[in-house]
Amino acid sequence: MIRGFLFLISATLLWSGNYIAGRVLAPAMPALMLNGVRWTLSAIELAVILAISGKRLPVIQKWREFTLLGFVGMFIFSGLTYLGLHSIPAAQAGMISGLIPVAILIFGVIIIKDKGSAMAWFGTALSLVGVVILLGPGHSRSKSPLSIGDIEMVIAAAAWGLYTVLGKRYGRNLDPLTLTAGAAVYGAIPSDIAGLVTFSPGSLHMTGQAWLALLYVSTAASVIAYFAWTFGVEKVGTTRSAPWMNLLPVWTTLLGITLLGERVNITQLVGGAVVLLGAVLAGRRKRTATSRIGDRESA
């Protein structure tokens, strides 16, 4: 179980770096083109890993599952994330990602009837309090209502919640590597189409830093992070995984400060601490015979 939580933490840390890289790449190329390039490279890398592992990718047999996962997780979630990062700071985008656990719990109840434990709900609720603090008065200098970037990030959060729950459902018959590879292959198709549509001559302004950021998003933030998250969800279950996604605002804020020079105030610090506490509490519950059976059924 501890190993599963470590994978979830590692995934959120790597994804927070994706927000930083997305901000670096914002002036370098169109957002949807970036998404297409990212998942094309990731799909190739994952296919090579599968081949080395001696596994086959059931692209025909599981095309429905892969198409849905790829569209929701790679095209919608990732594409809207890069679009949002064109207009809002990385830290703010990461804060909005704190809404993801709510989406995971809601879709978990609807799709796989995974209602979760009382402690999981309590930890999630506490984490949401932290998100409210993070997004409340004082989270930015702007006094305007939600921008288009904020809305894009909110929709992206809902998409990732759906992807996580669907991944849990389909993961009963597919291992995490195959599941991620299949989703990447099918997700790269609409991502590439959208990227070509939005591309125009002169829209590329790649620098050395931008190339490094592109390498990061196509490897660490894609192959490694997605595999880590899928493996973690398989080990601990969807509802117990949900609150750990709230670590994204914490990691993103810290990286935004250290790498991008973004400023953080006391409100964000308090909110981040509450988010972290909620995630830790959500990972703790009383071990009973019933709960042990539930863990095995959700793994």
Automatic annotation (TrEMBL):
Q: What is its main location?
A: membrane
Q: Where in the cell is it found?
A: Endomembrane system
* Amino-acid biosynthesis found in the keyword field: no
Occurrences of domain EamA (ranges): 3-135, 148-282
Q: Write out the transmembrane intervals.
A: 32-54, 66-85, 91-112, 119-136, 148-166, 178-199, 211-231, 243-260, 266-283
- Pfam family of the protein (one): EamA
Family designation: Belongs to the EamA transporter family.
What's the protein called, per UniProt? EamA domain-containing protein
What lineage, starting at the top, does this entry show?
A: Bacteria, Bacillati, Bacillota, Bacilli, Bacillales
